[in-house]
Amino acid sequence: xxxPPYDIFPSLTSDKISLRQVQTSDIKDLIEISFYxxxxxTTLQQAVEMQAKINRDYFDGNSIHWGIADKLTNKIVGTCGxxxxxDKGEGELGCVLLPQNMGQGFMTLAxxxxxxxxxxxxxxxxIWAITTKENYRAIKLLNRLNFIKVAxxxxxxxxxxxxxxx
Length: 166
What we know:
The chain is α+β, with helices and mostly antiparallel strands and about 170 residues long. The chain has helices spanning about 45-60, 105-120, 135-145, and strands at about 10-15, 15-20, 35, 40, 65-70, 75-80, 90-95, 125-130, 145-150, 155-160.
């Protein structure tokens, strides 16, 4: 297994998006989707502080967090990454997209790139995601990307697992 941090922060690309490191200049555009420990930022300062915690988690080897950039503009349209379990050969995959960018295929591509990286570069044996029962878009996305529901959690959440990992 090859855990973060890496000598060079991994950037991943497809024809439409790139997954890249979030820069300080990106944060002002991400306030509405900035979260840490399920708490949402409401100010630029909170978003900056949250990104600092996310960066610290990366340098501690506990996570990897990418900005999802539209390749045409290099503007961040969302974020995704692995946030727990890396030290156990597992990864909880999380993602969020700016509302104006939903329905354009960005998240499908981002999750596919993240899964490939998790399996082939980190060496993960299990990838999972948790969403609320009301997040129909996320449920549809997870099902389309070969995740299967594995648990109903006690707090109105559902756990899904990527099913082709042995």
